[in-house]
Each structure stands twice: as structure tokens, then as C-alpha cells.
Amino acid sequence: MNWVRYRLMAVTVLPFLLALAADLTAYALLHDRLPEPMASHFTGRGHSDDTASRASFLGLAAGLHLGLGAVWGLVVLTLGANVRAVRWMIAAGYATAGFVGYLMVAVLLANAGVSDPDRVRMPLWHIAVGAGVGALGAGIGRLLLVALPAPDPEPSQGPGESPRLDLAEGEAAGWMRRAPSRVLSVVGVALLVFGVILLLTAGPLGAVGALPAGLLCLAFSRPYVTVDRHGLTARPTVLPWPRIRVPLSDVDRADSRHIDIPTEYGGWGYRFRPGRSGLMLRSGEAIVVRRLSGREFAVTVDDAATAAGLLNTLAHRAKAGR
Questions:
Q1: Contact 253, 164 (CB under 8 A)
Q2: Spatial separation of the C-alpha atoms in residues 266 and 156, rounded to whole Å
Q3: Could you report the per-residue pLDDT of 225-243, keeping only the tens digit for each?
Q4: What is the three-class DSSP state of 271?
Q5: What are residue 182's phi and psi, to 5 degrees?
Q6: What Cα–Cα distance (Å) separates residue 52 from each residue in 13, 56, 106, 269, 301?
């Protein structure tokens, strides 16, 4: 990572640290006026319907800001040289930090000087003010990026050559790699952390969505990609299904090339585009298989040139009846 990327990461994480500092400052100034326990959750009408200890609220604020900062930083890092996506992501990070930071301070101010947490009120206009603070934060984030040089684009490898691998008559061979996704890994961990926080503060019903979603993201974050006598197969690391397979009989040719996911596929995951589909987990090297129908299937994975070469050899063997 060069110095420009270090500066980019600092700009990305900065708003969450500032929001945490603001919350900690408000907590320190109001500590002696806060009830124990304090109101921590409110209904749509602004009435308190749940409480938490002051220490728990402080831990929730710290975990939320630091967790969001880590997620945003790693996602921006994976975007690489996609300047447009980086700018939008950083602006969204500043907006999120401003909105969440303000609401945390608003909860502290609502509790200050109230001895009974059931009497604490949180007027809905705080949501509108928080949205305004978030919009202001987004503008500040965009302004900071104007003075920040764009990260150097990764060199494009261009269309990769994939010659057949030399195999002796009757020799068997196989290839296997994991294709880890930092985006899914970070989102999965963040959802688990958020789910645990909700479990401790809001109970099982509050965490019923975040915990399963986090486990699901982690289950699909490091799929296996294999090339063998069955063809090209991609499946989750810990689950036998769902699996994607291109049999040898359907392989026209295979190549390796660099793929920029946001530009070519518009996002991560299992993506569909006219004439092609792909398992897109990160930008970079990918094996691209042209099927007999003319459609393409691609998987982003390291050592794609070796995989493509072996797949061409095995497909040629299968068609020759050997």
C-alpha cells in the first residue's frame, strides 16, 4: 500500500473516530447527571421502552463507531482504483458517522437530569437533525477528497494467455484454490458483532436478523474453486450447496484476465450481465470460461492462468474421448 492509500484510509476512518470522540466528550460532561440505568431505546412516539447501564451504553457507542470505521476502511481498500465508488463510499461513511454520532449525543442529552428513565423523552425531530448532520458530514467528506490524490490504478494484466498444460497420456491432474472475499468477511464479522450487541441490549428478537445474516456472509466468504475431471466448480467452503459447475463438455475455451468488478459487473456476489455471468468476490485475476452457447462464466481467483490452462487441456481430452 503506497502513501496515497494510507491517506485515503485515514480520511475514511477519521469521521468515525471524531464521532466517537464527540460521544465520549458528551458522556464525560454529562456523566454525573445521567440516571443509572439510563433510557437506551425509544418508541416511534419518542417514549422510552428499554434501559441500559451507563457502562453498557458507553461500550455500545465505542463498538458501533469502531466497528463501522473498520468496515468502511476495509471496503474502501477493496475498491482499489475505482475512484467514483471510493468517493461515494467515503461520503456515505461521513454521513453515517455524523448521523449515528449525533443520535448517541442526543440520547445522552435526553437522559441528563432525569432521575427516572421511564420519563425520558426523545422527540422525533432529533432524527431530522441527525439526517442534517449526516448530510453535512457527507459534504465535508467529498471536500476532503478533492485535495486527496486518487490511488494509483493497479496495472491491468490484459487478456491472459492460457496455453494447455502438458500432461502425459493417462496422467490425471486437478487444481483448487480458495477465493476469499474481504468484503463478505468484513460484513459478516460486522453483522455478528452488531448482532451480539443487539442480543445484549435489545434481546433475542433484536438480534434475529443480524446474527444469521453474519453467519451466512461468512459461510460464503471463502468459496472453493476447483478444476478437475468434472470441469470448473465453485462452492462454499463449509457447505456442499449451492454449487456452480461448468462441465468439460460445455467448455469452448478458458482464459485468464483482470476484472474490475464495479465497472464490468456492477457489484459483488453472483452477477448476471447480457451474455455472461460470474462469481465476483473481488477485483483482480479471474478465470473466464467461454461456453459452447457463447455465454461466459467468470470467477475471480488467484492463479487463474494455471486453472484456465488445465481446464483447456481437460476439455480437449474429453472432446477427444480420452
A1: no
A2: 18
A3: 999 888 999 888 767 678 8
A4: strand
A5: -65, -35
A6: 28, 6, 15, 38, 46
